[in-house]
Hints:
This protein is mainly α. Helix content is 67%, strand content 0%. It is built from five helices and no strands.
Amino acid sequence: MTDYLTTLAATMRGDIDTILAAPVLNNTDEPMAVVHAAAKLQAQSGLVLAAAVQRARLAGHTWQQIGDELGISRQAAFQRFGKPIDPRTGATMNTTPLPNAATLAETIIDDLASAHWDQVV
């Protein structure tokens, strides 16, 4: 994770330099370059924050502590950065949606409406 953050920080520095240099260089020809750099920087800072939260959790900090530090509730911190834990096993739950979930739901509803109980699984 340290290599990842180091690489990300180097990329962010280039974007920060672009933003800071624009007014000094009076670069009026490329204002969209500054907008692009700022948008990239915002996305990258989100990645840094997510990595920092993950490290805090691995170090034993609670969602309440993380939420307090971010100025949000513990629930909001968990919703943004956490992963649901299966209370039966303690393992991280898979939150990837089922492929073709809408089609599956329609099939189940049709089977229920048609009283095909044996086909509802």
